[in-house]
Amino acid sequence: MKSNVIAAVGLLVALLAALALPAYAGNIVDEWASVKVPAAPELKPVTIDPKTTALLMLDFMNQNCGKRPRCLDTIPAMKKLLVEARAHKVPVVYSIIANSTTADIITDVAPQADEPSVLSGPDKFRNKDLEKILKDKSITTVIAVGTASNGAVLYTASGAAFRGMNVIIPIDGMSAVDPYAEYSTVFTFMNAPQVSAKTTLTRSDMIKF
């Protein structure tokens, strides 16, 4: 009799505990509307070493950036960042997209004659020239800006992190077709294994050379 009572009490406790747990829908799509928005990241000031840092200007093309208002909005700040980087002898590397040349880069942030460029898909490290360019200049930190945030910026910056480099992301220098893509990119930089530990989120006017 006593064992039956104990068993019944145990069953009741287990049932109450189960009822107290939050409902789990089983997949993210079912939970989509109820997911809690995470806190915004803390943007941090950064002081870089011009001798070991490169500025990656990713896909600022007339064909894509020129047709995206959110990308065009980044150009004034990126022009200023580019001027500062050049003034402090920071190496600048550009990327271009298929069926384009450096002549197609937005004029305000166009490369100088001695600044190299690479042609690749979203991950610019798939073109081995980028890795060689950075290694030859003893680069250990990259500042990655451009479009799309969820394409060239995310994959190239992640590639740099996977190769042991530190990554600086000025959030006012990355853009996508819509703000949610930028949101998801920032969230990934904040939380992705191995990438987040190597990434500093900042703003272009918080970077000191």
Description:
By secondary structure, the protein is of the alpha/beta class. It has 8 helices and 9 strands. It has helices at residues 2-20, 28-31, 69-72, 75-87, 128-136, 149-162, 179-191, 195-198; strands at 46-47, 53-58, 92-96, 117-119, 141-147, 166-170, 174-175, 199-202, 207-208. Strands 2, 3, 4, 5, 6, 7 and 8 form a 7-stranded parallel beta sheet that branches. Helix 6 packs parallel to helix 7. The longest helix has 19 residues, at 2-20. The termini are far apart. Residues 1-21 have low confidence and may be disordered.
SSE layout:
Layout: H1 2-20, H2 28-31, E1 46-47, E2 53-58, H3 69-72, H4 75-87, E3 92-96, E4 117-119, H5 128-136, E5 141-147, H6 149-162, E6 166-170, E7 174-175, H7 179-191, H8 195-198, E8 199-202, E9 207-208
Parallel strand pairs: 1-9, 2-3, 2-5, 3-4, 5-6, 5-7, 6-8
Short key terms for the protein model shown above:
209 residues, alpha/beta, seven-stranded parallel sheet, two-stranded parallel ribbon, 8 helices, 9 strands, 38% helix, disordered N terminus
